[in-house]
Design a protein that fits this description.
Elements: E1 8-14, H1 15-20, H2 22-29, E2 33-40, E3 45-51, E4 67-71, E5 75-79
Antiparallel strand pairs: 1-3, 2-3, 4-5
């Protein structure tokens, strides 16, 4: 059984994206279960900590990786630490 609780990650969404392309942000957030968010008023970014089937499973005690997203015709998730 796939345990979503092992598929943890965090990512940042620039506030400009939220203001300029709300539909893109909805697409991003539709693929994750957000468990925490930090609204940084200085950098104008929102950092989300979430679970997602797109994140690689990690063991308890391992640092939670940062993910970045890219837009094509759909949202593509990739670990920021990955060299791929």
């Amino acid at each position: 059984m796939n345990d979503i609780r092992k598929r943890r990650g965090w990512f940042t969404v620039p506030r400009e994206l939220l203001e300029d392309d709300y539909d893109a942000v909805k697409d991003i957030l539709s693929d994750v279960i957000v468990v925490a968010a930090d609204n940084n008023f200085i950098t104008r970014d929102i950092t989300y900590w979430a679970y997602s089937e797109h994140f690689e499973p990690i063991d308890e005690g391992v640092a939670v990786p940062e993910y970045v997203f890219a837009f094509t015709r759909k949202v593509i998730w990739k670990s920021h630490a990955s060299n791929n």
